[in-house]
Amino acid sequence: MKYTGTTLITGANGFIGFELLKEISKDPNLKIRVTDIRDDKIKLLKKPNIEYVKSDIRDERELNTLVSGVDRIFHVAGICNLSTDFDRLKPINVDAVGKLTKIAMENGVKTYVHFSSSSVYGTYQGSPFKETDVCHPEDAYGKSKHAGEMIVSEKIKKGFNAIILRPCTVYGPGCNDGAGKVFSRPGKIAGIPGDGKKKLSNVRVEDVASAAIYLSERENSFGQTYNLADDDHPSLEEALELAAKTFGSKINKIHIPLCLLKVIAKLESPIAKLQGRIPDLEYEAIKYLYQDYYMDNEKLKATGYKLKYPNFVSSMLSMKLI
Q1: CB 266 within 8 A of CB 283
Q2: Minimal CA–CA distance to 50: which of 6, 109, 103, 113?
Q3: Cα 70-60-219 angle, rounded to 5 deg
Q4: How far is CA 210 from CA 9, 11, 17, 19, 214, in A?
Q5: For labelling, which of 48, 112, 124, 296 has a CA lying 20 to 30 Å from the CA of 224?
Q6: How many of the other CB atoms lie within 10 Å of CB of 232?
């Protein structure tokens, strides 16, 4: 699939969006339009083929301007945490998806890549999550991402060339929020949650960006949903110990019961709210620590995509060099 018009990236100043922008802007001939509420990272690239437009993706009039002349969209923008209630998530994670996809169809956009989340699956049910599994989101964030997916799926039925991506825990250079931050930068690790034996699924941000671009250029990817995960499933304790080794962080190897973590999270939540921040320990995140969390990535690899960082251990060790 070739693109001669403009490629639009929403949420381009965020962790995943900026990595996507860095990767795609390596093509000096590609016209790129980006939007976000801030541009402090975007302007560091200083590339003439990048056009920044500050916009509110909830506003249909502003979306019309954004999509003008666009033939490919990477929709990354959204609220991404487990502490915001559904009513506040809905205008961004659901309603804006409906408006953007509607306008994209009206403007003849060739390809739309939708960034969803593995949270749509809910908690682990004993076998690796596959794209064909029925989704049972359990928290407000997962429900909002699933609702956004349903909008895209309905458009696909009407002939819209869309691709849905479900990344698991994303980590890598530049990650300062969410579950992936502990695997991305130095920071004290206060303890090991639970028994520490539960298995994880992770994916480097570079693979999220590269896979999104790769799939957007393959017509047989249209109408499909893809899990984004690496090949490894380290235990939580192994992953935290590796993070401490990688970044020289202090780690307390005491095991903290999950029931105690719930109490701590409940106490931190109102304090964080008063301070206008997302809690370091989100109450809704603890439920995912009771079971393993495996993601099946065979569908992605069957397309021919080669993971840049298939192995979590070697990936983490490479972070020392960045």
Answers
A1: yes
A2: 6
A3: 35
A4: 14, 16, 12, 9, 6
A5: 124
A6: 19
pLDDT of 170 reads 97
Residue keyed to tokens 């205008």: 91
What does the pLDDT read at residue 319? 86
Phi then psi for residue 35, to 5 deg, are -140, 145
Tell me what pLDDT residue 75 has. 98
Return d(Cα 208, Cα 308) in angstroms, integer.
10
Q: Is residue 100 classed as helix, strand or coil in its secondary structure?
A: helix
**248 Cβ neighbours under 8 A, 6+ residues apart:** 186
For the chain, residues with pLDDT lower than 50 are none
Look at residue 272 in the predicted model and tell me its pLDDT: 87
State the Cα torsion 139-310-298-76 to the nearest 10°. 40
* Predicted local confidence at residue 322, as pLDDT: 64
Q: Provide the pLDDT for residue 276.
A: 86
Closest listed residue to residue 207, CA positions, set 222, 223, 226, 221: 226
**Alpha helices, DSSP H, located in the chain:** 15-24, 60-67, 86-90, 96-106, 140-157, 205-216, 236-247, 258-274, 283-286, 298-302, 312-318
Angle between the 96-106 and 140-157 helix axes, to the nearest 10 degrees? 20
Whole-structure pTM over 0.90, yes or no? yes
In the numeric block, which tokens belong to residue 230?
């690496």
Q: Distance between CA 302 and CA 10 in Å, rounded?
A: 28
Instruction: Take residue 226 and report the two structure tokens written for it.
Output: 């893809």
